[in-house]
Amino acid sequence: MKAAELDVLAVGNAIVDVISHASDAFLAERALAKGGMALINEATAEALYAEMGPGVEISGGSAGNTIAGVAAFGGRGAFIGKVRDDTLGDIYRHDLRSLGVRFDTPPARTGLATARCLILVTPDAERTMNTFLGACTVLEEADIDEALVASAGITYLEGYLFDLPPAKAAFRKAAAAARAAGRKVALTMSDSFCVHRHHQEFLDLIAKHIDILFANEDEIRALYGTEDIVEAMRIAARHSDIVAVTRSAAGALLAGNGELVEVPASRVEAVVDTTGAGDLFAAGMLYGLSRGLSLQDCGALGCAAAGEVISHVGARPQSDLKQLLALTAA
Amino acid sequence: MKAAELDVLAVGNAIVDVISHASDAFLAERALAKGGMALINEATAEALYAEMGPGVEISGGSAGNTIAGVAAFGGRGAFIGKVRDDTLGDIYRHDLRSLGVRFDTPPARTGLATARCLILVTPDAERTMNTFLGACTVLEEADIDEALVASAGITYLEGYLFDLPPAKAAFRKAAAAARAAGRKVALTMSDSFCVHRHHQEFLDLIAKHIDILFANEDEIRALYGTEDIVEAMRIAARHSDIVAVTRSAAGALLAGNGELVEVPASRVEAVVDTTGAGDLFAAGMLYGLSRGLSLQDCGALGCAAAGEVISHVGARPQSDLKQLLALTAA
Question: Which CATH number does the domain A6-13+61-110+137-327 belong to among 3.20.20.150, 3.30.2270.10, 3.40.1190.20, 3.40.47.10?
Fold first, then answer.
């Protein structure tokens, strides 16, 4: 097998975040489920946007945030996702490419606009997400470049793709191509509601295709129907080499090579906006794995990157993550 | 004279900021004058954008930031400025209206896109601005609604408008309409290069039309050709009721009612991005003046609002400025 040309290829929804501060009352009045991600249509997106406060526009999307983080560590990354040929699409492409991430998926020339996620950050720094998927709905199998997949050490897939049938097919093609090339496949569960929506399919996929699994506590509980996180991780570890479970302020639990490793969260002076915490944890882990670091060190990089991203508004790193490499034993 | 329906009407360039981190070397390689504002054309804007890092898009523009700040204090504000009927223009309008600011200037239906300012923030938190004025170049006299001007206690004008002949005519119309209605006219000098570009016109304008003058040290020195700030303020005070000079970390000097008042800068834990400091200082001052506060209290609100905005990325407040009112004696 040829050495991997890229460290990580991420496949996900290409979404521009519109981040705004909101009160708990604002959420309650609109029956928005705090901390969750809801899919909304264009009309609902426009109505909510008209009511919400001033926004900050930043490229986002779960896998997009992760690959931005991998690049900020110095990793070689690529992204597959669908934007429209519009202003937000141009911004999205610029923001990834400017980090050195390859992003060559052709934009949609017709149809819905580039996706946006209206993110309401409450005073407790929790984010509530409302996503209009727009052009992401036309990501399809043909967008998966198998040679690109084969060139990446790890192909990382976001669970949210399962919300769209054509994206789901793209997802399966990417996973199969990676396996066929002898590469690793990583998956993030994305959201416990997403797990509920696609429960059996996730179980099958993990059993057959996933080498590296990312989840938070709610997601892995929902997946294996048990309150016991360690028990759930043990089940997942029958299929996947590495299982990483994030636990917010409690850090992360990692299972791999028969070990169970506990990693503390990074100390953060003030938590400003939790958007992207899980995505950046995955970035640190994936970068570490691509460099052959120990599970403990991979977890430390993940927690440190998550700590950076929750200390400011926005789900992508604002500082050079290479300085975090000093945290590792390497 | 009728009581003012609005506290402040701001007239300025409607610009979306694209904020990115950059090294000093990046500026040096491109001969970008650190700390300044350069006007660039569309081709230069595209070339620079392609080279710069990932951006955060936030509505900006000097007078736009100021009126956003006035609204964040609880003031009643309106804005006159020109966007295109495009995505960034929609974002700009949303962001002001969502704060309760009236913004009814019709967008341009043809021609150049909504203006953007590519802002490079160096590790010392200094911002270097590169502005493509786009649709702002077609703001004209017809866009000045004299009834709106007459309804505002203070009409606030940004000096940058002098860079565009049609905007300059709009500026003069607004100043004349405010004076005719017995209202106050405020001006910010905007930039010392802008002062150099329009030196005699600024001198004439201030002598004839300006009640409240905002400048920083460089600007007022450039205007009156003296190194002595207090001397320069004394000259300005012959024409204007209030002269406010900002001095970065040294706070502000205010002249009015025959007094000279010194206001210390707010203590800020970490200066992250100085973009908008002067704009938010003006917001606090204008809000205070609209409420009849003392010069000292107006300055305290200005410095506190500037302190808030330099503690995060972006030139508009991220927190409720009403809490700063506790700083005043009122």
Answer: 3.40.1190.20
d(CA B107, CA B60): 17
Asked if B71 and B228 count as a contact pair (C-beta separation under 8 A), the reply is no
- Mean pLDDT check: name the lowest of A101-110, A310-319, B69-78: A310-319
Which of A282, A324, A273 has the alpha carbon at shortest distance from A63? A282
DSSP 8-state assignment for residue B319: S
Contact (CB<8Å) B58/A59 = no
Name the DSSP class of B48: H
Give the single-character DSSP code of A115: E
Distance between CA B128 and CA B48 in Å, rounded? 13
Question: Could you report the per-residue pLDDT of A97-139, keeping only the tens digit for each?
Answer: 999 999 999 999 999 999 999 999 999 988 999 999 999 999 9
Any alpha helices (H) in B132-164, and if so which ranges? 146-150
Reported as a pLDDT band with limits 50, 70 and 90, residue B222 is very high
Domain positions in chain B are 6-14+62-111+136-327
Say whether pLDDT at B253 is over 90: yes
| Residues in chain A closer than 8 A to B316 (CB atoms) | 54
How distant, in Å, are the alpha carbons of A8, A204, A205, A238 from that of A208? 20, 6, 5, 11
Residues B16-61 have pLDDT tens digits of 999 999 999 999 999 999 988 899 999 999 999 999 999 999 999 9
Strand partners, B117: B17, B131
Chain A residues with CB-CB distance to B103 below 8 A: none
* Å between A260 CA and nearest CA of chain B: 37
What number is the average pLDDT over the span B178-198? 92
**pLDDT score at B163:** 87
A268 touches B: beta carbon within 8 Å: no
Q: CB pairs below 8 Å between A and B: how many?
A: 61
Architecture of the domain spanning B6-14+62-111+136-327 = 3-Layer(aba) Sandwich (3.40)
CB A300 within 8 A of CB A263: yes
Q: Is B74 left (phi over 0), alpha (psi -120 to 50) or beta?
A: left
